[in-house]
Amino acid sequence: MSRPEFPSDISREDFERVRPMLEAARRKTRPRKHDLYDVFCAVLYFLDSGVPWRSLPPAFPPWRTVHEYFTQWTLARGDESGLLERVLEHAGKAAMIEPLHKRMGQGAVTSADAQRTAAG
What we know:
By secondary structure, the chain is an all-alpha fold. The chain has 6 helices and no strands.
């Protein structure tokens, strides 16, 4: 099924370059019901628009599905940046990293900023 394009969408060609990174995060339990491209574009829309999860356009996969992928892609793994952050950089969507941090409640504060604030 074809869906309308949104300004936040990434091209299929650019997506294919980051697909292996996203695929590696998935537990292989059953066949995928939704196109990973559509899920990723829904995450981009969420970050770009600032809408609540439940307000994702119906052209995207169900919001709970998109939220589950978002959760998997943003899990902290040690000191390394989250998978979604690395994918955004690799896909040329680095401008989406600040909205990602805001959505995750991190703002744009770095650990160095926090240490300076704590030190007074």
